[in-house]
From TrEMBL:
This is Sulfur carrier protein FdhD. GO terms for cellular component: cytoplasm. InterPro entries: Cytidine_deaminase-like (IPR016193), FdhD (IPR003786). Its main location: cytoplasm. HAMAP family: FdhD. Keywords: Cytoplasm, Molybdenum cofactor biosynthesis. Pfam families: FdhD-NarQ (PF02634). One of its GO terms (biological process) is Mo-molybdopterin cofactor biosynthetic process. It comes from Loktanella fryxellensis. The lineage of its organism: Bacteria, Pseudomonadati, Pseudomonadota, Alphaproteobacteria, Rhodobacterales. Coiled coil: none annotated. Transmembrane segments: none annotated. Required for formate dehydrogenase (FDH) activity. Acts as a sulfur carrier protein that transfers sulfur from IscS to the molybdenum cofactor prior to its insertion into FDH. GO terms for molecular function: sulfur carrier activity; sulfurtransferase activity.
Length: 284
């Protein structure tokens, strides 16, 4: 069994800094140059997910929490059904990027031979490189009805609470975040990345490593709700997805069919519950 400590050790020492300083020239509104300024920028690098010696995906990501990223990606993309199917994980820096090397159990390695997926995608899209429409709109399980009900008050305060737990965004103003909201407790885990779907994969990987069941709470994200965000949330088994921005129509169709509650436009004291409002209390 891959433990949380083992996964954290794979990220140490750090493969690369998550942010870097950059000297630039500031220009005032009147066009006057106000002199050099130092800005902190988020770093991104090519990260290859390598399973049993075969590269299955290459994505641009923030080079921190990469063990969480690799395990989360393996879980949400169906490479494994649980951490017990990952025998080892190593984070290996190279001159041109970083490899997250996973060694899967024999049955999952055999299943990989049936997948024809080679991905090199920008951080804005979680579906780049999919080789068929069928894969892009893969069938999703239906989440169990019942389960935890998220208080409306917790929904409305979650994005502001998340904003207070984004140190990389504070430094760079250029990253997304994903968090897990546990009813009655608040946010218990946060992950950041330049890519919204990367942040979500990191979060799901961190939850798995910590033994936290996504079915017991809600996922909160700083981005829009697209098809890939719904897919990853449902595959992780989380019944509620909370976002500050808008969903796409196709994402809502998938969420509705999968019994996922999508709450979006959470800002200024209000929100819009698009699907399965029964998962949020006090919505009448």
């Amino acid at each position: 069994m891959l433990t949380s400590d083992a996964r954290l050790n794979n990220d140490a020492p750090a493969a690369a800094p998550a942010s870097v300083p950059w000297t630039a020239h500031a220009i005032a509104r009147d066009g006057a140059q106000t002199g050099p300024v130092t800005r902190i920028l988020p770093e991104e690098t090519a990260v290859a997910i390598v399973c049993n010696g075969t590269t299955v995906a290459v994505m641009m990501a923030t080079p921190e929490d990469l063990a969480d990223f690799a395990t989360g990606f393996a879980l949400t993309e169906g490479l494994v059904d649980g951490l017990h199917q990952i025998e080892s994980l190593d984070i290996v820096p190279h001159g041109t990027g970083i490899e997250a090397r996973l060694w899967l159990t024999e049955d999952r390695a055999a299943a990989l031979t049936d997948r024809r997926r080679s991905m090199l995608g920008p951080v804005g899209c979680g579906l780049c490189g999919i080789d068929s429409l069928e894969q892009a709109l893969r069938p999703l399980p239906v989440l169990p009805l019942g389960g935890p009900v998220i208080a409306l008050a917790d929904v409305l305060t979650a994005p502001d609470d998340l904003r207070r737990h984004q140190p990389l965004h504070d430094a760079t103003r250029a990253t997304h975040a994903a968090a897990f909201l546990r009813p009655g407790t608040g946010l218990v885990c946060v992950r950041e990345d330049v890519g919204r779907h990367n942040a979500l994969d990191k979060l799901i990987g961190a939850l798995a490593g910590a033994g936290l069941d996504p079915a017991t709470g809600a996922i909160v994200v700083t981005s829009r709700v697209s098809v890939d965000m719904v897919q990853k949330t449902v595959v992780a088994g989380c019944p509620v997805l909370i976002a500050v921005s808008s969903p796409t129509a196709q994402a809502l169709r998938l969420a509705d069919a999968a019994a996922l509650c999508v709450v979006a436009h959470v800002r200024d004291g209000g929100c819009t519950i698009f699907t399965h409002p029964d998962r949020v209390a006090d919505t009448a």
